[in-house]
Known about the structure:
Elements: E1 5-6, H1 15-23, H2 27-40, H3 44-56, E2 59-60
Parallel strand pairs: 1-2
Helix pairs in contact: 1-2, 2-3
Amino acid sequence: MSLKRSTHDVMIGGVCAGLAHAFGWPAGRTRIGYVLLSILSAAFPGILVYLILWFVMPPTDEW
């Protein structure tokens, strides 16, 4: 399993769609879950993790 950002199913950076594809989850539910988890954890850690993943995960053109 390799984590790659989506270049087609993008809302901000394609991170949540890439995570959803890697784990076989729906992208919309993954985004909602990530936002809820970020809000419940005081938002800052979730934003920081998203930005780190955005820069670390390579983009893909496969989907």
